[in-house]
From TrEMBL:
The lineage of its organism: Bacteria, Bacillati, Bacillota, Bacilli, Bacillales. It comes from Alicyclobacillus fastidiosus. Gene3D superfamilies: 2-enoyl-CoA Hydratase, Chain A, domain 1. It comes from the Bacteria. This is Enoyl-CoA hydratase-related protein. PANTHER family: ENOYL-COA HYDRATASE_ISOMERASE FAMILY PROTEIN (AFU_ORTHOLOGUE AFUA_1G01890), PTHR43684. It holds the Pfam family ECH_1. InterPro entries: ClpP/crotonase-like_dom_sf, ECH/Chromodomain_protein, Enoyl-CoA_hyd/isom_CS, Enoyl-CoA_hydra/iso. Belongs to the enoyl-CoA hydratase/isomerase family.
Amino acid sequence: MSVDDLLVEDIGAIRVLKLNRPHRLNAFDASMSDHLIDALTGASRDDSVRAVVITGCGRGFCSGLDLSRFTDGSLFPSTRHARLDDLEWVGRLIECVVYNDKPVIAAINGAAAGAGLSLALACDFRYAAQTATLTTGYIRRALSPDAGMTYLLPRIVGHAAATDLILTGRDVTADEAFRIGLVHQVVAPEQLEESALELAERLAAGPPIATTLSKRLLVSTYEVSLVQQLKAELRDLKECLATEDVREGITAMMEKRVPKFQGK
């Protein structure tokens, strides 16, 4: 399942995706992004996958777009299809994470910058190693943000903090990232993968249908009115009530045991 720039491993019901361009701190080019999009799309559609972990090989999580490809013109493909695509591979990737039907965890093992930080922001959970450094980075290269940065960051840390991080482009330590709500947990570097997998296992043990519907509702809340959201919640609740998992959850509660959800 793996390719040169993306390593894919299934651990039980968890799909682990490792960005594998360590010589460039896992900076994105079109090829790696396409492979990651394919892997995320496959995970979203695969009933055997219940959670996804994204991390990086080597010292970095993802240092953003590989700007070395800018000089040779290969950063963005010059095909007619690409020229007419108003999302391009950068936007498509963020879509695949945000709208993925499985919970996605970013295990930030090192530098996360620019589009690499956006990738982490698009995930449902962000765990960071104590040694990780995060930065929006764009302003340092005379660039405006992309990859959903101006949409995701203010919703996570608030408008004032997002303005600070985007317009200064300063480095943020893992401890500060935790303090401002940018990451959910900070752990020792040697414990990062284990901690992310523990969370993934907890999510994977949950009811798959309710998990997917809950994630979809959380995403849609920024796009609809209160009444529309209330109707969507009721619709999805009725969908859950018709599942075998609900009966299993209630029975397990009454029998004082751990439920075993089957996604039915």
